[in-house]
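HUMAN: Spend a minute on the protein record below and explain its fold to me.
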Amino acid sequence: MMFAVAMTFIDQTIVSIAAPSIIEELNLSSSGMQWVVNAYLLTLAAFFALGGRLSDVFGHKRLMLIGTVLFVVSSTLCGAVPTGDGAQAWLITFRATQGIGAAFMFPAALAVVVAVFPVERRGRALALFFGVSGALTALGPLLGGWLTTWTWRAIFWVNIPVAIIAIALTFAARIRNERRREPVDWVGAALVVIGMGLSVLGLQQASAWGWSSAATWVCILGGLVVLTLFVGYELRAPHPLIKLHVFADRAFSADVAVLFFAMMAFVPVFFFTSVYAQVSLSSSPNQAALFLLYFFVGFAIASQWGGRILDKQGAKPALRIGTALGAVGFALWANKLTDLSLHDQWPYAAMAGAGIGFLLAPASTDAVNRSIGASYGEVTGITQTARNYAASIGLAVFGTVLTHTMTDRVAGTLTARGVSEAEAQASARSIAESVTGQADDRTPTGESPLAQLGSEAMSSIRMDFAEANQVVFYCMAGALAVAFLCSAFHPGTRVTGGEQEPQEPGAGTAATER
């Protein structure tokens, strides 16, 4: 299962590194390349809940294999994109189907792991699952940089051998394919896909369309309206896509809330740290990727401790430690960003990673253990949907904070050097959008705004960008602080092996296959 989900984690970050090479060879527009990245994340978020439900209906093993095949076929076709006028549409289409494959594969794979481990051993098992597979996200930029020196198409083809190993191991493990004989709530599925898709689309495109754009708010508010209709429909449906009564359990709700606010920092930190390292520290893309490894050292070590705490003491201690450590780690890290020294930052990057590591597996595992009456696939679909939705919000909101703060600081720097206020604002906006990747990084003359600055001015710009990132990282610390408050609502009770497990197929309700 870890081989399978490794592909979904790596593909969240690997494409960004190869973006310049893809744009050059296929002659894509800046907005077109942004859609190549976002199409995967959009469908991944929109289809997770459906993937979890289909996993129960068709069987965890079967849907994991279906998702893996869809994912790897889409990856192969992404790498085989022909040059010419249709290249952009081709690449965006198969990146979208790749996201659907991942949305089917991930909750099914996680449900397999949950199903085969008893409650008393589940914490350590999922700590290993999230620790190893989550740490592979850091390999995306490193692997992308290395493979792109050969050909950018290899960043998609690398999934082929990984998928073959995953499929072979799945058959070798002789995993049971347990499924429920229940109808699929297709109306609910359509509502959640449309609602999630519209709202995530609005959040993703807010940087390009602008927060004052009607299109941005039509998508966000329209998506939220559809999701509200989804909730109302699910409460009345005889066989709902998601059994919303699971949220009546206070511990389950606390787990999901902690995951939501923690993921607002966990996923965006990859993007903001990478861009900060390249702009403020003048690092290469590969050096920026290595910078992220400090974060993952803390993450990997703490995730194992978090799993042990869950098994011995329950989830609440791990959630309290993780959220507190993460909030302090991100705040201390933010304080050091303006030192422009990697040596001064790595302990705090590791501390921030450790905070996320402590809470990720315990919150996810405890949510599954607590969801009495729901199934493993359904509940993993809920938790992963919350995680992806939170990541989209974090990227959109923090990206806007970074751009606005950067624009104000750069404008001040240019004005101090005698540039008129109007010209300073225009140049500052162009520079901010260039370094944050939120717009085409070319001026009307074809030059990068950064290339037009002298060395003295560029030094000031690097500090301006570090100060703008400082605000973002303090916001991430704030998100972990809110997660800490949410963890206080967890009752602290434990689920043991003698208590009722989440409902899985029983006699007369499901078929069991090999």
